[in-house]
Design brief:
The protein has 243 residues and is α+β, with helices and mostly antiparallel strands. Helix content is 27%, strand content 32%. The strands form 3 sheets. A 5-stranded antiparallel β-sheet has the order 2-3-1-5-4. Strands 9-10-6-11 form a 4-stranded antiparallel β-sheet, with helices on one face. Strands 7-8 form a two-stranded antiparallel ribbon.
């Protein structure tokens, strides 16, 4: 399920791509006020993700923007929507927005369709698995990049999605593969600004095709829409939309 938040810029402000930690902070603040402060401590998956504030361009006062927050927990999205709707304004770092309205909706997987990344997908491959993909590992893990085999990316995101499915539904995931075609678009490097330093994060954007022939495959793709693909979903990565 998704919450659409309509915002209006209260000042002239420049868009920054290094928004993730500040926007995550706003997400956790609203969730805490909505009674979901425990989400911050859940591990390994928190089952909530979000888009960037889009369109990602500089703003004049009065310009309108949109933010999407998604989770398979429908009640969480409903409470989030109710809570942020009570705000007159919200802050994301130095950015200021008036909250105009919110609404909730569901994306329903089709029998055959394509999705595209609203935010880059992050995949970190442990060094122990890099050799099987023909990837040289200088550190404990390696960010998947466009120079690496597509098969490694597909294996990692499908394994990640299968693990999410097993944890959320408490049942075995459907058989793989989950995606029938994968078309990479762009590689991006994004700095994550934490209190104790900056972490350079590598992500990639994609268009992915899928088929849903069974109820289990339908559940799996609903989870992909609402929980994100790859890693760092609660930091705003791996958010997908219909292509």
């Amino acid at each position: 399920m998704r919450c659409l938040v309509k915002l209006r810029s209260t000042q002239r402000q420049s868009y920054t791509s290094a928004y993730h930690i500040k926007l995550q902070g706003l997400l956790y603040q609203i969730l805490a006020e909505a009674g979901y402060e425990f989400v911050h401590e859940e591990n390994p998956f928190k089952f909530v993700t979000f888009s960037n504030i889009f369109p990602p361009t500089d703003m004049n006062e009065g310009d309108r923007r949109t933010w999407l927050v998604a989770s398979p927990h429908e009640h969480l999205i409903q409470k989030f929507s109710e809570t942020i709707a009570d705000y007159d304004t919200v802050s994301v770092g130095e950015h200021r927005y008036a909250v105009e309205y919110t609404s909730e909706f569901e994306l329903t997987p089709e029998e055959h369709a394509a999705v595209e990344t609203g935010t880059p997908i992050v995949v970190r491959i442990p060094a122990a698995r890099c050799e099987s993909y023909g990837i040289d590992a200088e550190y404990d893990d390696v960010y998947w990049r466009l120079e690496h085999p597509t098969e490694a990316f597909q294996e990692e995101i499908e394994q990640n999605l299968a693990t999410k499915y097993r944890q959320y539904y408490d049942r075995d995931p459907p058989e793989r593969p989950y995606f029938t075609d994968l078309a990479p678009k762009k590689e991006v490097a994004i700095p994550l600004h934490y209190d104790d330093g900056v972490v350079q994060t590598i992500g990639t954007t994609w268009e992915l095709q899928y088929d849903c022939h069974t109820r289990a495959e339908h559940r799996l793709m609903r989870l992909a829409y609402s929980a994100g693909l790859g890693e760092l979903n609660t930091t705003g990565f791996g958010f997908i939309n219909n292509a």
